[in-house]
Design goal:
With 324 residues, the chain is mainly β. 8% of the residues lie in helices and 39% in strands. The protein has two domains: 245 residues, Neuraminidase (6 Propeller), CATH 2.120.10; 58 residues, no CATH class. It has two helices and 23 strands. The chain is globular and about 55 Å long. The protein starts with 13 loop residues before the first strand and ends with a helix.
Length: 324
């Protein structure tokens, strides 16, 4: 085993210890028990979780304070699902949905589907179904910003599938156990994409390590987190701006891990609209006002379908907070 200085750039086919990964914090939500899925909204700095067989999505601050809950947009309580976000507008079922929409990967019953909803209240915006014969049973999923596709963990086939949420196509499928890799079993499981490298980070409740793979299915490394006290991992949500990972567990704990490579190319907050990203200035204000006047979906910051004072208030708060 060897440690590394940067978890973002790794040699292919290496097993490593936790390296620079550290536990920055953890919280145990009082509103439920075992957690099967998690998502992080970089636009609002909110953590979304789904408790096993619960009919609601619960939302928390980064410090673990409860904010709100709403009915799960897919309409199924279950536990074969995931919560995801994209920092850009994307196509779902032929409809363009705004950046920072809640994206629910659902397969507790057929057909497998990806549902886009408002992150404020879960109101459904669009959905795309997939052929049931092409999928075993999804338990997790992640949007890949470079490929404009989703990667989903299929626990019944112990595989990952790359799918197009706009037209319902299955692009490719590959095993989670490529040649040369130690055995890995998907059960309660999830995947997210580290934007700094484009690699897939896969977790499962059956392993105490995170599997890192390329989008082509090649094994990169396994990151052992047992020494960090992290166990029964069921979901992962990466905060690319900070280089952090939020891990949810079947033991009911949400872990905050630091030490991943931050993504330097994207916006630092919902107010960071104009390039170059990473600083807030007049050009961000100007672009927001232009989009607000044109009623562009990216200016509907609370995703309620209206363009009013509340969107301006959210923008001004994010702008005042600066890049963190």
């Amino acid at each position: 085993m060897r440690s590394v200085c940067s978890i973002g750039a790794l040699a292919v086919g290496a097993a490593i210890a936790s390296g620079d990964l550290t536990v920055l914090g953890a919280f145990n939500p009082a509103e439920g028990g075992s957690i099967n899925s998690i998502g992080f909204n970089e636009g609002t700095d909110e953590i979304f979780v789904h408790f096993n067989h619960n009919g609601s999505v619960h939302v928390y601050t980064r410090s673990g304070s409860f904010l709100r809950s709403f009915a799960k947009p897919s309409g199924v309580a279950g536990n074969d699902d995931d919560l995801e976000f994209a920092t850009e507008s994307i196509g779902v079922g032929g409809t363009v949905v705004p950046a920072h929409s809640l994206l629910v990967i659902e397969n507790d019953n057929d057909p497998p589907r990806i549902v886009a909803a408002r992150a404020t209240d879960g109101a459904v915006l669009a959905q795309q179904t997939f052929g049931a014969s092409l999928v075993g049973a999804w338990t997790g999923g992640a949007y890949h910003h470079d490929r404009d596709t989703f990667f989903c963990t299929d626990w019944s086939w112990n595989a990952l599938q790359e799918v197009n949420a706009d037209d319902g196509a299955v692009v490719q499928q590959f095993t989670v156990n490529p040649a040369g890799a130690p055995s890995f079993y998907l059960y309660y499981s999830d995947v997210d994409v580290l934007r700094a490298s484009g690699h897939l980070y896969v977790v499962s409740s059956q392993q105490a390590f995170i599997r890192v793979m390329t989008p082509a299915g090649q094994w990169v490394t396994d990151i052992d987190v047992s020494g960090l006290g992290v166990s029964e991992m069921a979901g992962i949500a990466i905060d690319d701006g900070r280089g952090e990972a939020w891990i949810c567990s079947q033991n009911g704990v949400v872990y905050q891990l630091g030490g991943l490579e931050p993504f330097q190319g994207g916006p630092c907050s919902s107010a960071d609209l104009a390039q170059p990203y990473g600083r807030l200035d007049f050009f961000d204000v100007q672009l927001f006002l232009q989009r607000f006047s044109a009623q562009h979906p990216s200016a509907d910051l609370n995703q309620d379908g209206a363009y009013n004072f509340f969107d301006v208030q959210i923008f001004l708060a994010a702008f005042s907070a600066g890049c963190v």
